[in-house]
Every structure is written in structure tokens, then in C-alpha cells.
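yo, Inosine/uridine-preferring nucleoside hydrolase domain-containing protein is done. seq:
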Amino acid sequence: MRMLLQGKFWVVVLIIIGVVGANLYYFLFYSSAGANLYSIEGLPYRILLDTDVDTDDLLGLLYLLKLNRSEFNVEAVTISANGWSDAGHAVNQIYDILYMMDRDDIAVGVGGNGGILEDGTILPNVGGYLPLIEQGYTTAGYCRYRQANPVGRGGRLDLDANFGIRKAFLPQGRRNYNPLWQPTAQQVMIDRISAGPITVLLIGTCTNFAIFLMSNPHLKKNIKHIYIMGGGVRTKNPTGNLFTDYTSNPYAESNMFGDPFAAYQVFHSGIPITLIPLDATNSIPISKNFFNTFEQSQNTYEAQYCFQSLKAARDASQLGDKFYTVINCPQHTGRFNFTTEFPYYKKVLYKPDFGSNKLGKPVVFDMDMSAGDFLTLFYLLKVPLEVINLKAIIVSPTGWANAATIDIIYDLLHMMGRDDIPVGLGDIFATNQSDAIFSSVGDCKYIKAIPHGSGGLIDSDTLYGLARDLPRSPRRYTQENSLKDGTPQKQPLALEVWKSVVKTLDPGSRINILTNGPLTNLAKIILSEKNTTSIYQDVYIVGGHISRGDWDKGNVFTIHSNEFAEFNMFLDPSAAKTVFDSNLNITLIPLGIQRRVGSLPRILEKLQETKRTPEAKFASRLLSMLYGLQQSHVLYRHVDKFSQEILGALVLAGDLKPTMQVKPVKVLAEGVESTDGQTMIDEKDGKLVKILEDVNYTAYYDLFANRLNDLKQSAVIGSFDEQRRLWSRQPK
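structure:
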């Protein structure tokens, strides 16, 4: 069911300050519960915090870290992965906050790959990515309740990036998400609660803790008290905050609504509970004078981070003088932020000087930020400028990564000295999946096929744990509208970037497009610019599967009813149909030919023969990671598909001598899950497209390795460690 709003709004302001920052303040300083939250017999009060890393949760965490450790000792943070932020971005933000606050001793848990069987058996390490009622055997599933949370601006995108503040402000420590090594939420809960009496603070959905209680009833005795932030209970008037569904559900609060069955389990656990509902926090509004005073007096790094976050969220209605006083006190203060950690930090943008060089054919790369897309981007940047002029990148967040992962693109471009290339963010939802009234929310009919856990979104959002090894770019996703030091401070949209590229084309030039993900962006461009086919040269589509028989299956492994679709077509079948119904000159690189060049061992062997350049070394590490994971765990059996995605770039660059056939192709998009996205030869209704039938496989591996090892157009800054060294010593 889609979430509806009553009335029409120009702007929807996300009211997010009022669950934790205020609630901690409320129960620590105003309520009788706060009076009881002190050490017993001189021992500190052990605290486990379960959070969905919303902006208010960050304030709550920083507030707790400022308290006297002899009385309040935060021992663990677990991440609620089905709330307001996405697991990969959330866990790394928590690591960086703890690093800033010199608290790398605090355990952090997120995710897990366990499931719940049909008979109710709970397997170890259920990740909490899905509400209890939707949790099956895997981490892929439907967004029954989470669809009420906006996905793009004003929602998960802004919270994953903390409105762009996170990357600009927080220092980057040594801890980060690492596939299969990252402690799970359940592991951390079991470890900390087994150690003795503990207080639990639940400030997101109750999913993680409900799973813990159902799986470990023998450990309930160690939980002395539960503090739950959420709900609205004390008035007959509507007290909820589901602003995307306020008409049909005006009483629910988002933490309770996010997993009501989990909340039921916790409330009926028999453990003492203190609930801090919305109607309590709404009773302590802030004055304008407080906000102005806070703005003028930010004496600690944590105070600066809190204020910038509050300002970006555009609401600070439920914090008081106690919060301001504590967050500014010099005790237990942050050591530095990202720039002050390094005595010789300098913001630099790297842009090439083309001079009088004649540039090659203009290319726009449309990517969904899978691991294979980043390998493809490396290759495109290594092709001589006289052959390919990469004009822009447009991003489709309807595929293998969440929208905030766009920051990895900026970092890779910075590494390669191409801060001149614009990056546009495409639509958050597949075609016709967003709500008709409030477009920031919508259905997950197709994206539900992507796992949230291992081998899925958490790995893509962190580039399998390697993203933070890339050098840090000054460019990043942000909501701001201003210019700072010449760096654009507002994230452009894909359509805006496309129109800018069209305006800068030389007379007679045409754009070549390479798509490596769902065709959402390309379909929108086609529909927005009718009768302008003269600006397109060739469109290379990596995707689709033309089955040769019942034995020749597709790769949408999480939708068992759809045996013959390929992911890029399935994730937005309506967009694919729009593209294939157009007059574009299409070259299709289907799944069958991709599979023939998808040998991870062979491509690794070629890369590792020399590894002379930083980009070759990074690509080798990424491919080695994929191969090692594929060999060690069944959840990664599909990751060789990402090495196959490079093929389109080699065909576009003219580096291969491919064999093509022209055939009439049709994509099914009828709203039927078992057939949507299937690609077939249709002599009657199909569109004639060129289909890649054969390539020189040996040449494929050699070409990729040789390009990345070429010293020309190589990285200008190799890694974050190299930046760290440069910024730590005085320039010569």
C-alpha cells in the first residue's frame, strides 16, 4: 500500500529532532526515570544503545558520550537497519563519531545474515533489515512499513550522508565495515548482555532487541531496564509523526510503526520499561533564543557537529539548556574533526588541462554503483582522451546501492584527477513506483530483489569495505545551495547534468551512452526530450538476458518465480520498455555473453602480473575481495556478475573486435513479477537492436589489465593513506 499525504505541499520538512536528543535530556534531567539511572554500589551504569542513526540519534549518542563515565558507560552501539538510515552508511558514521570522541573501545554491531524459517525457527544472527512479519530466510524482502520513510532528500539519503555534513566534518578512523568480519547486531547484544547487568536504550525500531529476546530468553535476567523512545499515548488528539501517512494513521509514531510486532515482543517481555513518547518530548519546546545562543557558542567539535546537523534538519524544537550545556562542556570532548586532525590539511580539486588536444567521442556513463560499475569507471577513465571524452556520470539509485553511495564516485574521480566530471543523481524510485502525491515515498516492488545484507546493499554502499581506502574528495553529496572555495554545494540531478552536457556539445557532435544499471535515467531523458534523437549517437546497454532454452536461466536469484529475467531489466522493466520502444541506436550486451568473460581468477591473474598503478592495485584488491568471498560463502556466489559488467566499456571503447547480430528485441513490463524484465526475440513487436554475440575472451582480460596498468592518465593521489601522510607533514 502506498503512503498518502493529505493536501498538497511545496516543501515537506522532516521533523526529526524530538525522539532521542530531547528524550535523553527529558528522562535524564526531568523524569523520575532519570533519577534512577545512576550507578549502583559505585559501579557505572552499563548502557547498550540500539539506534537507527537518525539525526536525533546522533545527538543522543554524543550526549551519552559526554556524561560522567564513572556513572554512565556506553559499552555498545547496535544499528537498527530497517529504519531511517541504511546499514553500510550508518555503521561507518558511528565508527567515525566514536573515533572523534576517542571511544574506539565501544563495540559496534550491525546486520547479520540469519533468517526466520516458515516454522518460526529463528536462525543465528538475523540482521534486522526487515520487520519481523516480513523476515524470511534471506535479507531480501518487502518494505511493508519502511515505505513510510522517505528514501531521497528529506529521508534516508540525507540521513545516510547527514545532509553532507558527515563527510566534510567527521574524521575517519581505522575501524570500518568489513564483509563477514563486521560484528553483527545480535553478536554484540549477546556479548554485552551476557557480561552482566545492563540498561538498554532503544531509539529506533525494536527489531534487533525483539529478535534477541526471542532467541535468548535465558539472558533476560541481565537486562535491568529498557528505555524506549517512541509512541504517542497521552492524548485523544492525533499524536503520531507519520507525516507521509498521517491521513490513514494519525496516531502512530515511526519507531513503533517501523516494526509493530517487534515492539509488541519487547513490551510483553516482562522487563521493566520506561517509554518516552512524542507527547512527552513535545512538552519541552525550545526558544529561538536557545538556538541563537547555541549558534554563537560551539566550543567543542561535538557541539559543532550537533549544531550543523540541527541546522540542516531545520528543526530544533525539543532540546533545552541542559543539552546545550552538556554538549559544550570540555570533559570527554572530541579530539578533532576531519580537517583539524591534520596540521597541513589543504582542500584541492584536480582537473586536467586538455590544452589543444582533440578529444574523443563524448560519453555519458549511467551507473547504479555496483562494484562492477566502479571497475568500469576506472576503465573509462584510462581510455585515451582522444578516444573517449567522459562528459558526465548519471547515477541510478534504483539498483545495487543506495543514493548516498554517490560519494564513492566523487572519491574515485578525485583519485583519478577528474574533479571536472559532473555527477548527477537520478530518480530514487523505479518508473511508476513513487507515490503520486508525495514522490519521496513509494513502493519497493522491484528493488526488494536486492539483498540488504552480505552480497547486497551493505556491501555495495561500502564498496565491500574498501571505499574508505580511496582518497577523500572535497566534492560530496550535500543539500546546500552555496559555493564554498569553488566547490559546488548542492547535488545536481541526473536530468540537470544531462541538459548541461547537451548544451556544451560541439556542433555536429552526438552523445554516446553506456548504461550499467536499470534504465530509469535513460527512460526519463527520452520522455523529457522528445524528437531530439539527433543528439544521440549510440547507446550501449549492459543487461538483459535472451534465453536459449529452459536451462538458460536469468540472474534474479531472489525472485524464484522469475527464472529468466536479468537484474538491470527487472529493477525497472517499465523504463526498459520505454528505451527499447524508442528510436535509439542500441547495442545490447546481454547476460549470456557477459557470463563468458566473467572469470574472476583469470582477470585477477592478468591484473596481478604487474599492478604498477594505484588504480590497478585498487581494482585487484576489489576483485580479490569478490573472489575470496565467493569462494568462502554461499551468499556471495553471484558476485562474479560484477566483473562481467566491464564488458560494455571495452565494446564502447572499440578495444575488442566483437561479433554482432541484429535482432528484434522486446522487454516484458506488464506488472507481473514472474515475467517482468524478461528480454526476448519477438519478430512481430520487437525493436531491431545490435546484440553482442561473441568476443575474443583472452583479449578481454589482457585489455582490462593493460589499460589499468598503463602509466598514462593514472591516479594523481593514490589513497586516503597517501592523503593522510601529505596532510601530516609540512609541504616542501
